[in-house]
Design goal:
By secondary structure, this protein is mainly α. It has one domain: Tetracycline Repressor, domain 2 (Orthogonal Bundle). Helix 2 runs antiparallel to helix 3 and helix 7 runs antiparallel to helix 8.
Length: about 290
């Protein structure tokens, strides 16, 4: 049992399960908008299972696919596979199990979510190889999180409303922007290893500007989204607070100082997503 508990704890650390909060609040935002309130608890439950399983699958596969690259990078050499804490075979098995749980959860929602689940897995797993070919891998990661609100909408309605694609685009740019910042710390390793990223391609100062542009575009999309769904005061307050939090996030780091990158990347992004959900939910509650 101690060995099983240690392996479970290592697996949870490997997939950073607590960071499921990045995309989850945006999925729940789409859920309550699609239902014009709170949908059946069964639907919410299966959406949560699908979200956690999908992210766990993607993270585990990324660790499996990048094991050799992680071993060569001083920043990531202590991860589970390079450090010998988990075997590649175990991690691949965990990936397959998470994928099966995701498909099962999709099948419990409706027929369209089941049919689209393999396509979602292609996006989630394909990201791990994009940095070998394209400097725009950050946007592929963004899309992997960005599909969450559209998927949640389909889970509730059984069909896709084009309006929710605006939130998908916003989340895609939001994620892509903070991934560009996160990639700055691997600038030297990516250059030596022949990996592609915006920082490696255009330099860290220019990459910072690219991230700022992405996040500014995200705010513009949130404004459009608010207009499409007729936000009231609380909804617009949520958009404004997201803008302030993004500005604060960018103030934490600079091209010459990445020391507080983890605070900007992990803590602030979780806060941003949760704040947006809270204000949109309150806005919808006032209208009901």
């Amino acid at each position: 049992m101690p060995g099983l508990w240690a392996k479970t704890r290592t697996t949870l650390e490997m997939i950073k399960w607590e960071h499921s909060i990045f995309a989850l609040p945006f999925a729940l935002t789409a859920t309550i908008l699609a239902a014009s309130g709170l949908p059946a608890w069964r639907t919410v439950g299966w959406i949560l299972v699908a979200m956690v399983a999908a992210r766990s699958c993607a993270m585990a596969f990324n660790r499996w696919a990048d094991a050799d690259l992680d071993a060569a990078n001083p920043r990531t050499s202590t991860r589970a596979i390079p450090a010998g804490l988990l075997t590649r075979r175990f991690v691949l098995g965990f990936t397959l199990l998470a994928a099966l749980i995701f498909v099962l959860a999709s099948s419990q929602l409706n027929r369209l979510t089941l049919y689209l689940s393999p396509l979602v897995l292609v996006v989630l797993l394909g990201y791990s190889y994009m940095k070998r070919f394209s400097r725009w891998s950050h946007l592929v990661l963004g899309l992997a999180l960005g599909v969450a609100p559209s998927a949640a909408w389909i889970a509730v309605r059984g069909s896709l409303d084009p309006r929710i694609l605006v939130l998908t685009a916003a989340v895609t740019l939001w994620t892509g922007g903070f991934d560009v910042l996160y990639a700055c710390q691997d600038y030297e390793h990516d250059r030596v290893a022949g990996l592609h990223s915006l920082p490696q391609s255009i330099g860290i100062p220019a990459a910072f500007w690219a991230a700022r542009i992405m996040h500014l575009a995200m705010l513009c999309l949130l404004v459009w989204f608010g207009l499409l769904f007729h936000f009231l005061a609380l909804g617009w307050a949520g958009v404004a607070i997201v803008g302030l939090l993004l500005a604060y996030e960018h103030s934490l780091v600079s091209p010459s100082d990445l020391r507080r990158l983890n605070a900007a990347f992990f803590t602030m992004n979780g806060v941003i997503a949760t704040v947006f959900l809270a204000f949109v939910a309150a806005d919808l509650w006032l209208r009901s």
